[in-house]
Amino acid sequence: MITAERKPLEELIDYIRPFRRLLLVGCNECVTVCAAGGRKEVGLLASGLQMALLKAGASIEVREHTLERQCDPEYVEELVPMIDGVDAVMSMACGCGVQEVARRFKDKPVFPALNTKFMGASERQGVWAERCQGCGDCLLGKTGGICPIARCAKQLMNGPCGGSTGGHCEIGDDVDCAWALIWERLKALGLQENYVEITPAKDWRSGGGGGPRKIIREDLAE
Amino acid sequence: MKTESKLEKVLAAGHLAVTSECGPPRGAMPDKVREKGKYLEGVVDGVNVTDNQTAMVRMSSLAASVILKQEGHNPLLQMVSRDRNRLAMQADIIGAYSLGIDTMLCLSGDHTKFGDHPMAANVHDIDSIQMIQMVKRMRDEGLFQGGAEIKSPPKMFIGAAANPFADPFELRVLRLAKKIAAGADFIQTQCIFNVDKFELWMEGVRAMGLHKKCYILAGVTPIKSVGAARYMKNKVPGMDVPQDIVDRMAAQPKEKQPEEGISICVETIERLKKVEGVAGFHIMAIDWEEKVGEIVERAGLLPRPVV
């Protein structure tokens, strides 16, 4: 999933200070799962913003709405009946959702309430960790299902650097060495020979080096 | 011979090679480079010039290498994949070679977290093994990494690093094998304090015949003080300083510790000389270049061969 964290309240207040009526829009997908921008967080932030502004001697009317999926134009249409009644929109979706709302409502200021972080998985309750950088040319089949691009601090494609110690990355004991994990997994699978083959320099065009990426499915595109 | 590199000539003639290093200054101080170089004159076959070591900004390795070259040294241009993409690397390699630098060391580099620009992007367009492949292809096939032909390709003698003390240990020989398969001509190892473990690693190296495919220079570092020994033991990732070395340093009064550190270094070289497959020594006297001559002399490695 795409993970995100809420921005500090002060930053959000700065965005909305000039406005009287705000539409706060959550998303029911990834940001709900990582507890950053779902219906519950929309409610909490709406009260937080109102209280903070009241304390400062100002006020704002916040209308709350959570879409099924904010990165999908079909669902963003739901906001049409609400949009004329507000001065600005604050999105609690990832950056994709924020941009979709901004694209649809060209004359409304749209602000992000979250910092979009990474594509990751839940390690345990309340902890999410990066797993994928969307390089567009997946190596996982050769690396025992552990990604060196997303999980090695140096993005090494051919083995651990000289700083790998006791299964930890040189940047800190709280970070696993991706290559230590890969090696353990290759051993468990009896696939040690996968390590021997040199992974050649990557073509980063598929990873964003070729400019903004797009998928066009001829069979589905209208 | 693949190149005109003095280091290659020394190694090919069967001499135990000696290299040392020079960390460029953190400012526009060319005289500092010359001063450090002075200490190494006539006592080493090549001088590694570090590339933003420990992720701290310094005078570029290329510029400091050229200064050393002008003083008659044989610089080894270090290059890390952290700071440059493949375009910048190839441009610098051509530039370096055009300025008389024919030997280089391909590295990943310390993470930016350790340096004075932790907020900088880590490039890592290619990794150190892919860098070796690139430099070899430039030299042997006259092709850029992207496939186009190079007019007058740079002919670099290609070095790589190996750390026998990092984990997982069983990958350490295999990773060396990969670097050699990629095209490394010589290897400089991480500083060796734990000679027993190094010997174990070399057993694995010999079992695969890797010492016959590539020259292995054993890395050594003189320790200045017991504090430095403890720091390296506890704080530097991938460094293995056995407790008995720390104890030996601690047993000396402060003013005698530098001398003890030099003695340990010389004894280590003597032990390493007996290890089959060691082709020379890389002496990393960090900000202590003035002691390299003494170490080389006491280790019986003078005079340096004329090739």
Give the tags.
heterodimer; A: 222 residues; alpha/beta; Rossmann fold; four-stranded parallel β-sheet; 9 helices; B: 307 residues; TIM Barrel; 8 strands
Protein architecture, described:
The complex is a heterodimer of chains A (222) and B (307). In chain A, 30% of the residues lie in helices and 23% in strands. With 222 residues, chain A is of the alpha/beta class. In chain A, strand 8 and strand 9 (172-176) form a beta hairpin. The longest helix of chain A has 17 residues, at 39-55. The model of chain A has no long low-confidence stretch (mean pLDDT 97). Chain B has 307 residues and is α/β, with parallel strands linked by helices. Helix content of chain B is 40%, strand content 15%. Chain B has helices at 6-12, 30-40, 61-70, 86-98, 128-140, 169-182, 195-207, 226-235, 243-250, 257-273, 292-298; strands at residues 17-22, 46-49, 75-80, 103-107, 157-162, 186-191, 215-220, 278-283. The interface between A and B is medium-sized, with 31 and 38 residues.
